[in-house]
Amino acid sequence: MKIEVRGLTKKFGSGTAVGNVSFVVNEGELLGLLGPSGSGKTTVLRLIAGLEVPTSGDIFIDGKRVNDLTVQERNIGFVFQHYALFKHLTVFDNIAFGLKIKKWNREDRDKRVAELLELLDLKGLGGRLPTQLSGGQRQRVALARALAPKPGVLLLDEPFAAVDAKIRAELREWLVHLHDELNVTTVFVTHDQEEAMEVSNRIVIFSRGRLEQMGTPREVYEEPRN
């Protein structure tokens, strides 16, 4: 699915978190939103997801204006920075949670969870609790849960921030492989320039709520705007 953001602005009180931002995410693209803390990148992600309401501007997904649609109506998978897994549920039940909400029948639900356990290298871990997993495994469970309902768009908020450097490098490589295999339109937020360069098809650079630059990793590296 294609995402289009037009003139997006979000104010909190007298402060402007995002000011008149416009960009397009092409179908099947992996787009990175890069910038320091407070630059507006996570707010943009939450606006696309429907977790925040824009002060002005429009968001289109697959050509349809979604400003007034709920999170559930937007067909979006969202992965939070700190996993947000249900601690009392097994890996299997965490992944199946959204499918239960959407009332998938048990046979289809179990089949989909089994597919994701295989795809995300979690086979044999379905009966474990999140506390019994490594940080990298927990993040992959969070991704599996987001992908379970077959969303048209996947949004990732600092997806590797909660793991150490070695696991972070492995997860970056793994995310690129997963995206290439699934070809789902993906937007991820990061403050790590190396991460954005390594993972993204294109990068959007934010500063103080404004879009400063947009381009391929090569374009951003060779022609930085100061």
Can you tell me the residue ranges where pLDDT is under 50 for at least 5 consecutive residues?
Answer: none
Q: With helices defined by DSSP (H or I, 4 residues minimum), what is the helix count?
A: 7
Return Rg in Å.
17 Å
Largest sheet: 6 strands, mixed
The structural class is: alpha/beta
User: Quaternary status of these chains?
Assistant: single chain
**How much beta, percentage-wise?**
25-35%
Q: Total number of β-strand segments?
A: 10
Summarize model confidence as the mean pLDDT: 91
Q: Fraction of residues in helices?
A: 25-40%
Overall 3D geometry?
globular
Q: How far apart lie the N and C ends? A: 32 Å
Order of helices and strands: EEEHEEEHHHEHEHEEH
Strand arrangement in the largest pleated sheet = 6-7-8-3-9-10
What does this structure look like?
There is one protein chain. The longest helix is centred in the C-terminal third of the chain and has 18 residues, at about 165-180. With about 230 residues, the chain is an alpha/beta fold. The protein has seven helices and ten strands. A hairpin with a 2-residue loop joins strand 9 (about 200-205) and strand 10. The mean pLDDT is about 90. The chain starts with a strand and ends with a helix. The chain is globular. It has helices at about 40-50, 90-100, 105-120, 135-145, 165-180, 195-200, 215-220; strands spanning about 5-10, 15-25, 30-35, 55-60, 65, 75-80, 155, 185-190, 200-205, 210-215. Helix 2 (about 90-100) crosses helix 3 (about 105-120) and helix 2 (about 90-100) packs parallel to helix 4 (about 135-145). It has a six-stranded mixed β-sheet, with helices on both faces. Strands 2-1-4-5 form a four-stranded antiparallel β-sheet, with helices on one face.
